[in-house]
Amino acid sequence: MKIIVFGATGNTGKRVLVQGIKMGHEMTAFVRNSEKLYDQLGKHSAKHVKVIVDDIMDPVSVGEALAHQDAAIIAAGHAGQGEEFVRIVDNIISQCEFQPSFSGRVWIMGGAGLLDIPYTDLIGNNLPGFPPEYRNHNRNFERLQQTQLDWSIMCPGTMIDSREHPDPVHLHVTTETLPVPIPETIKEYSEADIAGHLFSRLQELNVAYDDVAICMLDHLELGGAFKRKRVGLAYQSNITVR
């Protein structure tokens, strides 16, 4: 497939590029700094990537870059950028909508706080104590719900450089809900207590960047199981639910 990665020099984007090359995809990197990209990839991998150096906020440049691509993976920006982050995602999504030769498959990055908490009608980002900037992911989610594109939101917890688990490890993937077992009694908790429960279990949501990248690349088909879904990841554990 032909895949374009926005934010290709970031921690997630650079892993998507490398894994995509290994899978034999035609990878395009949309970046601000090509030298940084080449330093990260090395000469061998860099030969297998088409590089576009341009302004991610320029609609024309983004639209032209999307032409004839099968999928776009948006790993640019972060929630702490506030309005700029929301504008970056909105601009790329808008150009995906407008570009007639773009196939329409889009992944964007969110976070575990976007996922439904079982037995409640809550998501983590709206709970007391969660960093307010995480709600920028909520805004990007709302933007996607307005489009007809075939999209998915990857919602990992803390991403780490590599697995801390011995191989083999089972990656548990969920749609819409948190990927760790939650006790039914949580529905009786106050919102503050729910937040505290989740904070105490954050380590269970650690997942390696490469596993996040591979999961997105493994689900690029139009109309697949993750169409218009939030996707959660966690390593299967034997931790007792309390």
UniProtKB/TrEMBL annotation:
SUPFAM superfamilies: NAD(P)-binding Rossmann-fold domains
InterPro entries referenced in this protein's UniProt entry, alphabetically: NAD(P)-bd_dom, NAD(P)-bd_dom_sf, Polyketide_Oxido-like
Gene3D superfamilies to which the protein is assigned, alphabetical: NAD(P)-binding Rossmann-like Domain (3.40.50.720)
Domain NAD(P)-binding, first and last residues per copy: 7-165
Name of the featured protein: NAD(P)H-binding protein
Naturally occurring in which organism (per UniProt): Paenibacillus gyeongsangnamensis
